[in-house]
Amino acid sequence: MTAKPDLDSLPKIGAPATRALHDAGYTSLRDVAGVPRVRLAGLHGVGPKALRLLQEALQEHGLSLG
């Protein structure tokens, strides 16, 4: 059984996406909860795979992207 992703950090989504999120002030899974997908997709380095992984990690906590 796999442990739930930690709400206080970001899941493994790749270095470019992680850098882009950190640069925009999103440093944890909790920070991206409720943020519109289109806003995150507009960050250079955040692509469909990163968005999917973020959504999946959020869903494990009953949360989602906006």
TrEMBL record:
Family annotation (SUPFAM superfamilies): C-terminal domain of RNA polymerase alpha subunit (SSF47789)
Lineage: superkingdom: Bacteria
Pfam families: HHH_5
Protein name as catalogued: DNA-binding protein
The species this protein was found in: Dactylosporangium maewongense
